[in-house]
Amino acid sequence: MIVWTNQPYVVYQKLMRTGSVSCDPQKSDNLNSTILESNRIFQRAYTWMTEQLRAKVGPAPAGVTYPIWAWYRQNFTHRRPDFRERHDYADQVCIELDITEEDILLSDFSAWHFVLNDWYNNDATNEKEWEEKER
């Protein structure tokens, strides 16, 4: 399965030098926010997502705490992220990865925000279902 991840150029350099990379929690802006509450919320949500991945694919490789985010689809199309729309780092590169389906956890970017913000997510697809699930 082809996916893409936007990373700082230094991550690409490490990948070329060592052949592998993983998330370094000490360098993650989201995991090390200067706003304590933001940091706590993201760590809780990211840990939850990590547990979902572990339940699907098994334990992480030695030394890996968190997975790397990657994109499978954008705007309902299987295509790489467009730097004009998504700019995460001043020196970012888009790295294409080929990962077996068994080793990847797909998630919905919009639904992820329900986990991140501790919102209720009713998966109803119409008003009747919504009302039934809300009872």
Automatic annotation (TrEMBL):
Query: In terms of domain of life, where is this protein from?
Result: Bacteria
Q: What is this protein called?
A: DUF3841 domain-containing protein
The taxonomy runs: Bacteria, Bacillati, Bacillota, Bacilli, Lactobacillales
InterPro entries named among the record's database cross-references: DUF3841 (IPR024211)
